[in-house]
Protein 1
Amino acid sequence: MKRLFYIIIGLTCTWLPVKSQGILSLDSCRTLALANNKTLLMSNEKVNAAHYQRKAAFTNFLPKISAAGGYIRTSRELSLLSDAQKSTLSGLGTSLGTPLQQAAEAISKIYPQLGGSLAALGESLTGALNNAGTAVVDALRTDTRNMYAGALTLTQPLYMGGKIRAYNKITKYAEALARQQHYSGMQEVILSTDQAYWQVVSLANKQRLAESYLALLQKLESDVDKMIAEGVATKADGLSVKVKVNEAEMTLTKVNDGLSLARMLLCQLCGLDLSAPIRLQDETEQDLAPNVVPTRDINMEAVYANRPEIRSLELATNIYRQKINVARADYLPSLALIGGYIATNPSVFNSFENKFKGMWNVGVTLSLPIWHWGEGIYKVKAAKAEARIAQYQLQDAREKIELQVNQSAFQVREAAKKLAMAEKNLEKADENLRYANLGFEEGVIPASNVLEAHTAWLSAQSERIDAQIDVKLTELYLMRATGQLTIEKPIK
């Protein structure tokens, strides 16, 4: 997000001159393209997602607290006593009444004076025992038709076979991988933008060249017409010049159309309106004067360190190595500390009560896989095979990047040679055109030779423009191959 903020600030700073003057430099085009490219915006969100996944993975080291609750309404309540037991307890005094009465009668025969007292005592005991039995029945009633339960649980992993640590490292590598892929996307956007930029510059120079060539031919046409009128030139000479003028006009039309399309492409890459009247800073330069990049003593280790592809493959290799630990951890012991608080209603801590009461608990859980028919061994071997594949991909990428760097360096040297030859050819073409014009004005050189000189001059000018642009582009490709085509330094 901080990087995106700086891009937006850069976009604001470069947008003001774009609005007022319509002139864009190469750096401002890059900034606009990076700020408006939808693929980069998506990859930036992938970086954010990977960042939050890493933070989520770290929480697995910390204790987790969870709460659960429930309510159940049942049609019948649970009973600890059978119906017969309830009946017996409720009629306990009545059941014991007959034996007590018999005992009282036996005692009254022996002690007649106690007969009335014993009868009253028997009746009293019968009622008391009935009441006591009924109280016991009521006390043992559960009333579980409405049941409530709640639990608060804390779980702290102690040892999970190394899975948590491995997963944390995987998410860390995944975040770095997402960043490297974002940088790789930035390089591709910059490459496309630079190509479109120099394409516009090339066509703008060729537009001026075509206009200059057309002006020369029109002047030659006017001179030939005057010479035909004076009888020193033939109509065939005039027709030849007119054909060349028509060809020059068609060439200029094609260049104008190509330049319009190239500007539209650049506007699309920069996120501007396709019809925006933009002009580029370098398209007004008469001579681009590119500097040839030195290609000697390229440090390949520095190249590998700068290329996001290599860094991405290294991170992928690390991820697959950690996946081996994850696969192995599934078949290692796991130990966790647990604690919590449980409350229920009805509660049974003081007989059955319709009140919320609970208790604390603490303990440990241990899980130990014993036999899985070699499943763990096979999964570990499969993870190791994937890790070796990633390692081979890394080695293959290093070899291809070394070849790409050497090819790009060769192209830079070749472009420098072509530019030097184009400069020499242009000097000769300028001199040849000057002599041809002087000879034609003196009447010693025919119009056909002048047309040939103009054609040679046009070709030399066009080749010089192509050579200069080629030097710029080969320098761009070399920077891309060496991993130096990003605005920001890749994060290790």
Protein 2
Amino acid sequence: MSSTEQINLAGKDWLTVIEAAHYCGVSDSQFRKNALAYGLRPKRFMGKQLYEKAALYAAIHGSEDWSTPQRNTAKAISGHAQTMEGPTAGRLALYEAKKKRR
């Protein structure tokens, strides 16, 4: 399906990934990447992943408002960097070392 084709969702209760992404107003890749984090679980039917339109609506409705103040990201990152462990801390250390060499 090309990006110029119209997607008609009228009367559909179950949507393919492409239709679900369109309904949610995001790209297919963004939808695939984040669907599970929003509790969206597809049903497998005849070789397709189908999402219930009502579940998509509920996920959007239950998400936070755009106007909700976000925490100070810079503060959160600096505070988090001091307590990081494992692979993430290693990658951060490599990044910092490369930055110092420049």
Protein 3
Amino acid sequence: MRPLTASEIRGNWASLLLPINQDDSIDYGRLSAEIDFLIDCRTDGIYSNGTACEFFTQTEDEFDRVSTMVAERCESAGRPFELGASHTSPQTTLSRVRRAASLRPGAIQVILPDWAPVGDDEAIAFFSRLAEAAEGIGLVLYNPPHAKRVLTPPVFEKLRRAVPSLVGLKVYDGPASWYAQMRDRAEGLSVFVPGQHLATGVLQGASGSYSNVACLHPAGAQAWWRLTQTDLPAALSLEHRVVAFLSRHVRPYISEHGYCNAACDKFLAAIGGWADIGTRLRWPYRFIPQEEADRLRPLAREILPEILPS
């Protein structure tokens, strides 16, 4: 597809999740069916190799195969897509960006180098080299709260001015003062906030979300995005229930039981039951048992019928 501008990267984007067999291999058959389902849901976009796709566990051959599957299916169906090219090594990220660019996605997502935290000048040098490798395709910075360095609005502005190819951000949001700074400092960038804060983000001027709520159900998350465009008070009311459900029934698996974020993303998909993905993560990461998802599914449908219709 043609490269997307910042203004075109908006709405509810669904993450690809990685189905894992008991022998720790990727189940490409189940992955193929998942891609087809996401396309059929007609979300505003699909992206690969974020946290939920366990980019940090993939070999380079696996990365290429997953990226190619997403690109070919989405291109054929005419659906917008981004390819994640993240890696903890900047050299490997650069190589992944070059290969992702050859598949002509709408944009390419990357994290900052994640062993030794980078300074401002190093971040600019990093993105400048990636921009050359991306061959005109825009870059999206994935800067989650657990990154070695979480950037502030003034640094986003510095990056935006230095690297025009930076078109978007995937970040954790903050209070109203944070949004005010971002409206000033990140003008001209697509700013995506966490899925559970979608309505608040729209109210404050965000562009959309690379959505964990889409892990729960991509079609339900897409319906919520449409609601933010037609009835924002109702969308904000739904957000209160989404946040309450996640805080009470999902977040404790991270804060109290020590599971990683990818485990909770797959757990949400298992609760939603919309595809045969499973909760299993690749070694050495622990995963939440499927039985826990089965237990919570009726409660999720009761609390969030707009997201999870019975």
Protein 4
Amino acid sequence: MTDILITEFIDQGALERLQSEFDVKYDVELWDKPEKIAEALQGVPGLIVRNQTQVRGVVLEKADALKCVGRLGVGLDNIDTDVCAAKGIEVFPATGANSDSVAELAMGGLYVLFRKSYRATEDVIAGKWPRMQLLGREVAGKTLAIIGFGSIGKALAWRAKGVGMTVTAWDPYIDISSAVWAEHGVSPRASLDDALMDADAVSIHVPLSDETRNMFDMATMSKMKSDAVLFNLARGGIVNENDLVKALKDGVIGGAFLDTYDVEPLTADNPFAGVPNLLLTPHSGARTVEADDRVCNMIADAVANCLRGA
């Protein structure tokens, strides 16, 4: 009888540790087949997923023995946590395990967008010499506004301060008088508008919810400085993609970096081709060797402890 079903990639070491104690079904072809997942979950107490497997609907309806879901990552928008709670199913995200990796990618994006010459490789190979067209800016002395001050926001703040940036932040769930701001050397803002007003770069680190969907539309981006850059390394849907494209083309903002999208992978009709000052990566913020090791082992431990009754 299967103890744990795993539907997406897990580190080999963590997998072998689980297999040494439990009967594990590991099938990365299942993630987009909810009916088959539901069938495979019959009598199974443990489930481990990443961000593509949808743990909702028929999967949870037919989960007759499920005790816990381990999420190899931090976002929970692919898991119906309300239904899980109602059924007594524990959900374990890998909180904090990939924060450093996401923060490092955000810092890389800052340098790439502020120093335009990082993207000049093809021109230089071709014998062009666009020095004057690629006049960049230094990040030191600039203001970074962090939207959402959880573990990733804190990891990014530490790095940005280390290169001489002024860091501000807004998080509606942390009181402006909280000691956490001083602990991290960050200036809190009372509202999102206040955070955007003087920022040279804005980095989003909030979950996707009804409250945050389309949080950054044209109206919001219009409150940013015209040379400011916007980062979304959190979840697709927080930034309205069509509005972002228009904002970049019309010069409403100076640049953008997206690692997450409404639809992943992008479809052929996506709006991003030919958009200026736009940097795209394939939802890879958390994907480093070190983060994968931490995430996989954290979730393996959490699910194993749940099944042991620890």
